[in-house]
Queue: 2 jobs
Job 1
Amino acid sequence: MKLDAKIPGGPLTEKWDRHRFELKLVNPANKKKFDIIVVGTGLAGASAAATMAELGYNVKNFCIQDTPRRAHSISAQGGINAAKNYANDGDSIWRLFYDTIKGGDFRSREGNVYRLAQLSTQIIDHCVAQGVPFARDYGGLLDTRSFGGAQVSRTFYAKGQTGQQLLLGAYSALMRQVGKGKVEMFPRREMVDLVVVDGKARGIVVRNLITGELESYAAHAVVLATGGYGNAYFLSTNAMSCNVNAAYRAYKKGALFANPCFTQIHPTCIPVHGTYQSKLTLMSESLRNDGRVWVPKQPGDKRRPNEIPESERDYYLERKYPSFGNLVPRDVASRNAKEQCDKGKGVGETGLAVYLDFADAIRRDGRDVIEAKYGNLFEMYEKITGEHPYETPMKIYPAVHYTMGGLWVDYNLMSTIEGLFVLGEANFSDHGANRLGASALMQGLADGYFILPYTIGGYLAGTPFPEVKPDHDAFLEGIANARQQVDRLLAVKGSRTVDEIHRELGLILWDYCGMSRDMEGLKTALDKIRELRTQFWQDVNVPGDSHDLNQSLERAGRVADFLEFGELMVIDALNREESCGCHFNVAYQTEDHEALRDDENYCHVNAWEYVGVDQSPTLHKEPLVFENVELTQRSYK
Amino acid sequence: MSAPTINLTLKVWRQGRTDKKGRFETYPANNISTDMSFLEMLDVVNEELTKKGIEPIAFDHDCREGICGMCGAVINGRAHGKERETTLCQLHMRHFKDGETIVIEPWRARAFKLVKDLVVDRSALDQIIQAGGYISVNAGGPQDANSIPVPREKADLAFNAAACIGCGACVAACPNSSAMLFIGAKVSHLALLPQGRPEAARRVRAMVRKMDELGFGNCSNEAECEVECPKGISIREIARLNRELMKAELKSA
Ligand SMILES: Cc1cc2nc3c(=O)[nH]c(=O)nc-3n(C[C@H](O)[C@H](O)[C@H](O)COP(=O)(O)OP(=O)(O)OC[C@H]3O[C@@H](n4cnc5c(N)ncnc54)[C@H](O)[C@@H]3O)c2cc1C
Ligand code: SF4
Ligand code: FES
């Protein structure tokens, strides 16, 4: 298989225009003859479903939650980037493009990233028109703030609830189309199989989470916007239902999976505090605008933070990276926190935390100003920890947050299965080996509002479609497979709960395929995951039955896939014998402990092809070509 | 110094999907760390039930950060428990005492059908939004974002109203099972912004009509909703809704 990313020719700045002109169009009157399935109602899915319905397509939209408005995007806090240059501080489309490519440690495609930067400004226009209540200054115009990996202020925000407000904007557009009968909503459904007929994605099989029924839906194209797989690690900042199932089942049906080992560990999360813990809570990166990160200079210093004088504190980010300071990209900030804790300078009960201190900002701006910016985040911190960040520094530690890896897609966002499009966090396309803060919301909405609605037309217009209905053999087979899996899970009746096994998988991945990796550890992880998978199928205990709302069964299905997928993450990490962005292999580092890339041998996307359980997947490589930026050692000094 | 632990007795509403009637079951919840969230406490109880061969308690949840609006149950008679402006997932066990008995029930309202145990069907709230809780704008058309200045105070008020998470606690808390706080929040959010004005009259009429159709009750100013709302949505939003409704009726008269 030769991977063709289908990047249009011509100068970078003209590629997207030119491509839009060259794409075939579907005649407006014909759009209503096409049925499109969209799985997912996060920013990517909801915006795509609403926009395609606006254009006239018939859309069926699926999600796990009881209503589309609860998709995981709702919890995004900090903001969304756009190259508006409203702050007049030297921002431009080119700068956003460059920051994103550099932030991703030169492991993403120039063409895609440039398009993303171009579309960023339109997103803000559209969201404001929808009524998204972004923060404003006293003149009534939009306010912005800074985020990691950038020296300009280009992040638009709505307090600490940017994701919520953007998602509610997309959701309201979606509800408008449901009201008009152009979108049919299917909440509380979990996709369990992709149906491929004659090499084309033609439908899905879902489990109705209330009745347990397996249902089939046919269409002319299938769009996956099912989010990321951070929950492979059990503890992450993701919502509880985030999973890899939809993407993984598509992978098993022939879609290639790209860069699965690229997982982002976010530097500012509330530290782990107990074994019962079900998830980790993010404290938005925007806090690094005003908060200063420090640890005691002396390892093992157990004094309270307020008792440690200035001269005995190490503001290590400011010291090591004078120009970016506390605003270095996430991978750099996370690794540095780990490094300090490994040296014994970590704080708090477990020693796995560093301080994020607002005392200076409060002294400088007053408590009111800080409260207006971060009030709700401080409240959330206080609810969880019982401590007040106005009075004592926050304790933070890195946590799994986002997955840059995902299904491989070309410039049209189409996977290696014809007619299967993948958007948002579920695809791999724009963030390389490290995503900059406030870029996921931008990407999800660019994909859904402004890219897919064009590119899907190009596919539909040029493709012949023999009729396929849900009684087609391919659907019956999908249902049979899904039923078999459910029955198998319920039949084990072992002694370990799903969560116990998931927790164990999470620890393996965190220890060996987390913030830093080495070949020995990765090999150990492979053995451990395989062993755990065997145990799962011999000893898991899934109560209840299949024809009912059965949350244990739902989780078991997700963990079953994580147990296979975790192996793929490790295989990918083993293969990439360099360090880049989030992927830090200890054997490859600079003298300053920064990631050391090997551009000669690894300047490509790893895309894996499924060949069978317990068999090594086949690797395909998409070379990354840089014509507009120079590959350099990232420096944030 | 790890957090203290407490022992509790739970009385939990159990009702199968096809059961006509439900019942309270009593379960112990022992060695609960006071650092746990309420849902983590339920996780622990569910793990134990699973091991004993009892089906775990079904409850809705997702973000566990107080923002998705998926969780919710009536705790000792209070929607989301008695802590102010707190969703169930953000309610922490340090607010309970050792030895306490906790009664846990689902939202009860005519418009919310019970699905199973603590899980209810809140799709009626989506239907209200479908009736008009949006601004009619298609992707691709809009002008530059800064061409519509919005005075800061209005923008802040709109934001406060837009903070509703659609959890339905207001409906569960209302003696009439009215959805007026939920609708008031959306109507206010959009009516306060210049972008939302052109459709303001149509929107408010359509949403209120839909609410009536779906079997929600009327508002008789009990203000229970405001007390229980985890996002601090104020009953001023209901007043604003009523003003918008009056303006709309005058317009159409
Ligand atoms: C706490 C937190 C804060 C964040 N803050 C920011 C921020 O400030 N700025 C930023 O840019 N990014 C942020 N991010 C990242 C960003 O929120 C996500 O990457 C983005 O929202 C993902 O959107 P999505 O549409 O791709 O997927 P999601 O929002 O995850 O939606 C996935 C959808 O797919 C559905 N689904 C999944 N699997 C299935 C299945 N098998 N069957 C049926 N349906 C399925 C789900 O029900 C859901 O509707 C944050 C992330 C977290 C965790
Ligand atoms: S108004 Fe408050 S209680 Fe009612 S749905 Fe919204 S957030 Fe929940
Ligand atoms: S689980 Fe999302 S608000 Fe409680």
Job 2
Amino acid sequence: MTKRRMFLRMITASLLRRRSRMLIALLSIGIGATILAGLVTIYVDVPRQMGAQFRSYGANMILQPTEAGALTEESLQDILSVFSPEELVGATPYRYVRLDMTSRQQSFNTAGTDFSQVVKTSPYFSVEGAYPASTREVLVGKEVAETIGVKPGSTMELTYQPSVSISNNPQDDRTPGAQLSGSAEGWSGGIVYVSAVLDDQAKIASIQIDAHSQTPEFGGRATEDEEFAAQFIGKALPLTLGQEVDALSGATVTSTAVVDALNNARKATPAALPHTLNFTVTGILTTGGKEEGFAFISLADMESLTGESKLDVAELSISANAEQLDTYVNEITEKNQGVAAKLAKRVAKSEAAVLSKLQALVFLVTAVVLLLTMICVSTTMMAVVSERRREIGLRKALGASDGSIRAEFLGEGMFLGGLGGIMGALLGFVFAQVVSVNVFGSSITFQPLLLPITVIVSMIIAAVSCLLPIKRAVAIDPALVLKGE
Amino acid sequence: MSLLELKNVSKIYGELKALDNVNIHVDQGEWVAIMGPSGSGKSTMMNIIGCMDKPTKGEVLLDGTDISKLPSKRLTDIRRDKIGLVFQQFHMVNYLTAVENVMVSQYYHSMPDEEEALEALGRVGLRERARHLPSQLSGGEQQRVCVARALINHPELILADEPTGNLDEANENIVLDLFAQLHKEGTTLIVVTHDPEVAEAAQRTIVLEHGRVAREVINENFGKQ
Ligand SMILES: Nc1ncnc2c1ncn2[C@@H]1O[C@H](COP(=O)(O)OP(=O)(O)O)[C@@H](O)[C@H]1O
Ligand SMILES: [Mg+2]
């Protein structure tokens, strides 16, 4: 038998036959190695995770038309051609218009957008229900949904009220050929809108009534009832209900409002009529931000409502570093007159800062854990040494040199370190996986290099932890131990 | 020819003189017993001879070398090469089997050789129990393993500090027979004992009192039993 085999035999016998004590040392190394392997995995994986996270944390570039310029879906596609398909994570167009929901006497900002892109540039949007998949579907912000009382599956109407320029000169009113526009309060506070065109004798040539805010079976009929509308043609303002015109049966209040609206009407140019579409609510949006006060519809619906196809802003999510982003911003601004690009600086800059802070934190925690492991292993080995004082004295009496005693304890320590390291590498991966899935919401792949690194580091830590206990062991005096204690 | 010579050796602990100007001389192949009351300095002397301690004063010549002033590393080498130790407490490595305990001694000395270790256990009548752990052996059996371990490297000098102090009659006789055999083979033996019967087995008895050699007795009956 060689000396080496005897050495291994003694070490394994010591570890196997003195199980309980060694288990504690093994456990402390194992736990240390687990946390080490786990944190290192996270440490290595954090930049990857964070990169994806930040990229997925929304837009990092904003396109807006300049004061003189304009942004349309076509010009947007044009601009996007500077990016390679891999770089362009998403590009979401937005057209913001304030729309009314007359039946609830509410109005709120509504965005026309492309939902297939929203998912990419605003992945943090949390939707109860689903995103709209076709036209005439609406995604309602939580705040709006609470105010108007809708749920996924509800229906609601949205009205585009064109901005009307009203003449400030009373002389203009009721002049021949004037286009008039007015409103008055109808049933239970609902506003009734009326617009009319006067002929060359300043008599009503045509009239349009919007009574959507009124009860559909009663006053609401005023919108569609041709007979009711026909009464007004050829009449001169002002009018009195019950004299020149009769009330719509069962809707006296609404009819009064129509007449009042006409009497209040001022000259308006141009008098575009409000446009209303019916929508089905597909989902309620929660973001914790201002988006909750918005409703979102498709760009196509927005165009139908407003008759315009312009965009107010496009949010881009580009997978590139800060430098590249700057280059792109300049390129776009130079090339496309009428559109200005700028960085969503807050996210892009904080990405690097948060990343380095997170890594520093992980590094610090790892260092602390390693230190604790070392203290723990050192303490255990110290206890092992005092427990084995007699045996060490005996070995020395039998002729063991200080070097042999060192080698034996170091051997035991490193054996434990290796075993704990293997244990730790595997458990650590599981630990990192759990953390990654819970914190970052994505899984990580096993790094094969992790096993040797963890094992080697554990062995080094075990060896370093053994230094002080070994010093104690070497100092044991064989004479004292054997004298008859 | 003299193997061991103590010249004016003293070991002083503060006020206490554990050994006080001791002069002893042991020949190669001699079997010497050391007796004396508790605290008279027997173990102190054995530790000095066994290269595990150094005297405060005096010279200790082992095989012609003065070991009284050597650094502990050299003492370890000499202890390993020349001396076999048997203790009152049966000191064994408690997680190693009987044969492994014997092999530990070989390991530090030269090369572990399981066959040779088993033979040594055979000599003390424990070949069958070679694979047993100390906890599975009786006190007498453990002490026999220690004797096997002490003789495995063929030391010139075997030092035994009260080797039979905790043994029954039967085991005491086995150990004494082993000493007699080793003596015949030419090994020098120094045995500390309280037991007159054990002392009578030796050729000469040195009696210590208060750290001094009180008297020496030659055993007239040696070899006649
Ligand atoms: N390390 C020590 N420190 C102080 N006193 C000691 C030490 N070792 C032994 N002694 C003392 O020396 C004396 C001799 O002890 P020892 O050689 O063990 O006696 P014996 O073995 O004859 O019973 C005793 O009084 C003992 O207390
Ligand atoms: Mg004693």
